[in-house]
Structure prediction request, 1106 residues.
Amino acid sequence: MLYLESGRVVEKKILTPEIYSLYLDTTKIAKISRPGQFIAIRFPFLYDPYLRRPFAIADTDGTKIRIVFRVRGRGTLLLSQVVEDNFLSVLGPLGNPIPEITNEEVVLISGGIGIAPFFFLAKVLVQKNKVSLFFGAKTGAELIMLNEFSRLGMENLLLATENGEIGETGKITELVRKSKIPEKAIVFASGPMPMYQELRKVIPNKIYAFFEKRMGCGTGLCLSCVIRKKDGGYLHLCRDGPALDLDLVKE
Amino acid sequence: MLYLESGRVVEKKILTPEIYSLYLDTTKIAKISRPGQFIAIRFPFLYDPYLRRPFAIADTDGTKIRIVFRVRGRGTLLLSQVVEDNFLSVLGPLGNPIPEITNEEVVLISGGIGIAPFFFLAKVLVQKNKVSLFFGAKTGAELIMLNEFSRLGMENLLLATENGEIGETGKITELVRKSKIPEKAIVFASGPMPMYQELRKVIPNKIYAFFEKRMGCGTGLCLSCVIRKKDGGYLHLCRDGPALDLDLVKE
Amino acid sequence: MDKLNLSIRIGNWEFSNPCLTASGTYGWGENFPVVLSKVGGFITKGLTLSPREGNPAPRIWEVHGGIVNSIGLENPGAIYFVKNILPALTKLATKIIVNIAGSSVEEFETLIKILDLPEITGLELNLSCPNVKEGGIAFSLSPKSCQRVVRSARKITKKLLMPKLAAGLTDLLELGRICEGEGADALTLINSLPALVISAETFKPCLGGKTGGLSAPCLKPFVLYCIQKVREVVSIPIIGCGGITNHYDALEYLIAGASLFQVGSQNLINPFAPIEILEGIKKYLKEKEISDVKLIINKLEL
Amino acid sequence: MDKLNLSIRIGNWEFSNPCLTASGTYGWGENFPVVLSKVGGFITKGLTLSPREGNPAPRIWEVHGGIVNSIGLENPGAIYFVKNILPALTKLATKIIVNIAGSSVEEFETLIKILDLPEITGLELNLSCPNVKEGGIAFSLSPKSCQRVVRSARKITKKLLMPKLAAGLTDLLELGRICEGEGADALTLINSLPALVISAETFKPCLGGKTGGLSAPCLKPFVLYCIQKVREVVSIPIIGCGGITNHYDALEYLIAGASLFQVGSQNLINPFAPIEILEGIKKYLKEKEISDVKLIINKLEL
Ligand SMILES: Cc1cc2nc3c(=O)[nH]c(=O)nc-3n(C[C@H](O)[C@H](O)[C@H](O)COP(=O)(O)OP(=O)(O)OC[C@H]3O[C@@H](n4cnc5c(N)ncnc54)[C@H](O)[C@@H]3O)c2cc1C
Ligand SMILES: Cc1cc2nc3c(=O)[nH]c(=O)nc-3n(C[C@H](O)[C@H](O)[C@H](O)COP(=O)(O)OP(=O)(O)OC[C@H]3O[C@@H](n4cnc5c(N)ncnc54)[C@H](O)[C@@H]3O)c2cc1C
Ligand SMILES: Cc1cc2nc3c(=O)[nH]c(=O)nc-3n(C[C@H](O)[C@H](O)[C@H](O)COP(=O)(O)O)c2cc1C
Ligand SMILES: Cc1cc2nc3c(=O)[nH]c(=O)nc-3n(C[C@H](O)[C@H](O)[C@H](O)COP(=O)(O)O)c2cc1C
Ligand code: FES
Ligand code: FES
Prediction:
């Protein structure tokens, strides 16, 4: 099931000069959204930008959806300029939810804006599992939503910044390497490609990694969102992802 | 002389649900603007809408420019959604100022949103002339800026509304017909075409009428803004107008 | 007012309404059956004889007023299609049209033989052949090749045969005349315009497939021109395609001379677009008290 | 780094930089002399033999990603131009190129004879002839007519001869080859795409001139494709035109194979665009430590 809704911006937060958070009033979509899924947003009435922009569902209370995004190009620049009570066109929920997980150790590893899908993941996963979050960023300010994460009741919250402002100094993968990740822990990772390459080296666990690709539709219609498979051919991120078994992917 | 400026929206007023007023901080343009001229506005970063939209300079204090506009299509719809501290790209001043007029009786006749250029006209003209304003609209609410006009010190302010809410009931041309417009008074008119056709019938004076045409550039480069001349060929509104001797025009 | 008639007849085929989904913009018909059951016809993504994995990413690039795509005809091949995809499609209450893209007359012939099945209403011949060697799309087959493809297709099948023409760098009117002469039942106008997106930072194309096809709103004024011009020189029905975003666009295509229209890129940003467009057309016809959509076709007053 | 070299040589003519203003988008050169004195060349609005008053309003219509214009070649005629406009133009520190639009080979010949003057550097031959009868524009002269026009032009004048080709419904590569074969010095690619804007309310065209030409940003990916393709089949210089809004666009045109570029519609929304584009190019070259703009021409890695 999937809806196209006109979502009112009910709250806008500026987390850093480049990272924004929006709460969108999209009741139908919110009601059926599950962790790991995403929505696709466009500006009503504008035909340039034309395509929707995909964003992870960072959180939902069943009536509103939260997104957290970093300004990259003109779409996100425009999005950073919306104000409360503006309306956005929202399509969703898209992509696959993460599987149901019960009584497991779950480790979330995030770099930079990759944190976006993890709040919703963590919020749901803590109910039935032991959850740890490794969260790294360039600066302390980019370790966004720390207060909110710390209130979730996770087992561990391990932080790293490249400039050393908060937590360990260095990349989050370094901290992962030093920590003891249980062998049978289920790992979700969300961050840039180099983080995944490094992670693959430092832990042997199965890793579900969140990928990003330019998307035409998000609904499986256009075949744009391909990601190369190790054994040849392509996966389609909007249909097969957005989280993929890292070992299937060759990028 | 003409400037391209990035103009901050310093004040936005909603005059009616369809009529808005913006003050734009465009110091260079404001400094050299004169009554009768216009500016051309577009949204920075957007390429759709692409063309600038022309608006009369409704007022200026030498540093800010005021425009007053009615929502018609998607350009003005977008413009109605800007908020204070947004920036707009502004080109101007464009078109010809009205001529210097001293010691004359001047009559301004306006219908609907045609009032836009008249505040600046009246403000300057009252300094050296006797000025009367005939102002008609569909409803009382659309008789915008009445307080401001009444403080200018004009000789007469004559009002008409089609629904009778304020002033005479009926079209403004009816009120003009009934009034005694001095034969040698200089008349400026600004409103829809039918108003001009009617005016031409009810008063014999020379009438300088403000016209609107789809404009490509506003600067004389594209030859889009044509208006048919009585004696054949075309005038170019952005170069020859925007106010034209009504007797030259065949539309 | 009487019941609204939206049906359109093309040759022997009666479409319930003039709205089709354009090739490559509604996948393999596996999603949104609610939408597909309401349109006049569903057109598949382009099929080739052998399976093709398509081009490397990125496959889509946004430009001002549109998009450039370079999917590279990813498809599982015609035989797989018939066996594993077609059965599900036939359950939809709509006509199935298969878009085929041969890279030779022989490939077209084989494809048509494989697809000459009762479940399939029509064959849309993609006459801008994929250029396997160069990775990108070739802008169009030469007039001679077009002629050979349509001629031999006509010999093989009695199905609704609709060549899809590529405008941009070719003599479109000549192509139209040739297709009509060889017995095509209708013409699809137009495929996406050949396009190139490059970067001044890398000196390379931005798309994995190098060249691509321009589609979406910016095409409309050009396609309307093409329809109107081709309308003057051929008498078989025209199927308008390119840049339709809403029912006004669709109505303009009919007025300019198209008998059917295809919704393409707009499906990507709104999968419900075909339904909304059909609803819009109904509302328009009701308001104007026009009882039959056929009455507006080719009614442009130039 | 050494001094930046922006100059480009086309045949015997040395342009101070690769930026020209496109025909019809900078009026008669009477405005913004500061800008015109900095560009490599100014191209006049299209000239015909007799004066033309042009099309009725509206002459311009905004579409998604661009504009459609139907000015109808308003111009005072070539003789008036030489007498009353050219003298002022020659005061600008830039090369003057005259755009001419004959409706017959003979009209082109007469125009060229009138304009074969020392003040004029080049003649841009508008090979999409205005269709006086229908009011709108015709999409292109036939290959045969193009051939005759360029051949007879070449016989009359030694000036920089640059046919301006119309893409969209014609075989652009063939036209390019023909023009080269007949001795053209360069090719302008492309004129605005033929376009039609109509209303489903009135069943009529929206523009006074009925059909028009599509220009502005949405053209870019298509024009880049045209440049790259024509580059492969002709060896005379290409002058890129269509959809340039900023210096990145202009650089892409050079990289794709153009030797000069024209800024058109963008002048309408920003008359200072040519200067900003030139400044942007300088900045880019400096940052990349490229001393000569010629070094990037045709350097696309496909
Ligand atoms: C499933 C998914 C979930 C995502 N979730 C988030 C999130 O929660 N927070 C966040 O900040 N970002 C997220 N992204 C990335 C985000 O979609 C891009 O940053 C954004 O689309 C860039 O748009 P733009 O107009 O600013 O950039 P432009 O470069 O101007 O975009 C032009 C085009 O490229 C596409 N594009 C550019 N970069 C990317 C990219 N990295 N990934 C996908 N498309 C791209 C755009 O969609 C658009 O079509 C997600 C991407 C995907 C695929
Ligand atoms: C010299 C001049 C001064 C003007 N001053 C004012 C003013 O002070 N207040 C005000 O409310 N309006 C004014 N107008 C009219 C205003 O420019 C149009 O209402 C506006 O451009 C419509 O844009 P849109 O995108 O909302 O409409 P759309 O219909 O979406 O516009 C599409 C295109 O048509 C053009 N267009 C549409 N209608 C008109 C029109 N009536 N006149 C000119 N171009 C049009 C637009 O510029 C644009 O290019 C003036 C027009 C001119 C020529
Ligand atoms: C993502 C995508 C994939 C496409 N795939 C095909 C295809 O396989 N075969 C084909 O003939 N046309 C294909 N097209 C072209 C469309 O069918 C259509 O002709 C074109 O996009 C213009 O219509 P539009 O502007 O409505 O999108 C594709 C277009 C897009 C955007
Ligand atoms: C308002 C306008 C008038 C034009 N007049 C002419 C003309 O007289 N002769 C001509 O060859 N091209 C004319 N053109 C086409 C431009 O020179 C140019 O080829 C086209 O607009 C594409 O470039 P652009 O996208 O940068 O505008 C005109 C274009 C516009 C927008
Ligand atoms: S984005 Fe269109 S299929 Fe995935
Ligand atoms: S609007 Fe371009 S010349 Fe007047």
